[in-house]
Amino acid sequence: MAPVSAFLRTAASYAWRLLVVGAAVYAVFAVLGRFHEIAVALFLGLVVTALLAVPVRWMERVMPRAPAVAVCLIGSAVLLLGGLALVGEAVAGESTTLVREFRAGLDSIEAWLERPPFRLNPGALSDVQSRLGEYLSSHRSTLVSTALSGAGHLVEVLAVVALALFSAVLFLHGGDRQWSWFCAQLPDASRERVGVAGRAAWRTFTGYTHGIVLIAATNAVLVGVALYFLGVPLAVPLALLEFFAAFVPLVGSPVALAVAAVVALAAKGPVAAAVVVALIVVIGQIEGHLLHPLVMSWAVRLHPLVVAVSVIAGAIAAGVVGAVVAVPLVSVTWSVYTALRDARLGAAAAP
Fold first, then answer.
1. 3-state SS of the chain?
2. Chain segment 331-341, per-residue pLDDT in tens
3. Could you tell me the pTM of the whole model?
């Protein structure tokens, strides 16, 4: 029998390792998919903990930890609910004006499309509207049943939020003690490595959370100011949409700005819509060349291709939640690998 070449042996060794890693990743996602509500709640609890850990430490200078945690959580909830109330008031106050401007804008868009070079059939958009009305009328029972089933999911959402808040309270109040207890239960041989991995993971996750929130807030302020000066209705809700969409890197911000461009086109015409489209390019350049290099230096900086693949893979595996979780998960994994590798190399170089 002919000897096996060194290249084939090396390729085979890497192949079975890749198969084992792929099976482990599939098993992790299968478990998360089975218990995705719990996984989402714990992830949200970690996000709240990363955001409020510093304010809690500041408050501990004047009061015990338990009241400090309560004050920070209640204050954050008041700010969040106040922002949502502001958005609801803005939507309610501008709803009548928005409907009127939308109708006028759709008429102007239809007239614009009827002229060269598009030469759209004058009744095309009216036909689309009538067909949409017929579809809604014929599928009314299906839509109602879907809405009722969606109401049942509200209970799941409330349960996830309750578990996330409960987890955040426990993490903020005694997360360091819980981690120390967990490490103490491990064998002595692996205790130090787990401690190094845990510190690296939390440092990266905290840095990523702070960074993405700062980037999202900056994008939302830029979009809100631009839409306000353009006179686009619902500037505050659209800015809030941009804030939440920025948590999906590379994809979320352009999608939110595309929605704003549609609103600007219908309400203010093609010039305002063109300015909003230009915002997509400007904000993308600011985010890619200024915010990410400065802000994400707190965490692990990933190549844009890795970010894009991670977002798409996460979206395929778990939808919107997967797209949001994918990049911090990859960042934490790479940070843990780097920390363990450096610790191993440092131990090997020690006399």
1. CCCCCHHHHHHHHHHHHHHHHHHHHHHHHHHHHHCHHHHHHHHHHHHHHHHHHHHHHHHCCCCCHHHHHHHHHHHHHHHHHHHHHHHHHHHHHHHHHHHHHHHHHHHHHHHHHHCCCCCCCCCHHHHHHHHHHHHHHHCHHHHHHHHHHHHHHHHHHHHHHHHHHHHHHHHHHHHHHHHHHHHHCCCHHHHHHHHHHHHHHHHHHHHHHHHHHHHHHHHHHHHHHHHHHHCCCCHHHHHHHHHHHCCCCCCHHHHHHHHHHHHHHHHHCHHHHHHHHHHHHHHHHHHHHHHHHHHHHHCCCCCHHHHHHHHHHHHHHHHHHHHHHHHHHHHHHHHHHHHHHHHHHHHHHCC
2. 888 888 888 88
3. 0.75
